[in-house]
Amino acid sequence: QVQLVESGGGLVQPGGSLRLSCVASGSIFSIYVMGWYRQAPGKQRELVADMPTFGRTNYADSVKGRFIISRDNRKNTVYLEMNSLKPEDTAVYYCNTKPERWAWGQGTQVTVSS
After folding, report:
1. E strands in 26-101
2. For the segment 56-67, what is each residue's pLDDT rounded down to a tens digit?
3. How high is the pLDDT of residue 26?
4. Contact 95, 38 (CB under 8 A)
């Protein structure tokens, strides 16, 4: 049973930055495409970025040029660096494979507000 634990969220002013981390336990992490998803209040969960071990990273248009996904397979960890944050980035952020195959973690709340 894979467990996903996200961290690094918080309250940040518009234009600020945050770095999220997600640790996956109990699986062969490196073989999967890993993704960061987010769910804003009243909206469906959406994929914002994904990254295979080898190959091209992909970003949703809404975060392209501002967010950077990276991974460390030795640590079973995927990261999301978020820059130039906007109020519309406010959401709970989750990681999972793409497509999602593991149980969702608790997520980490990101709130962008002045």
Report:
1. 34-39, 46-51, 58-59, 67-72, 77-82, 91-97
2. 999 999 999 999
3. 76
4. no
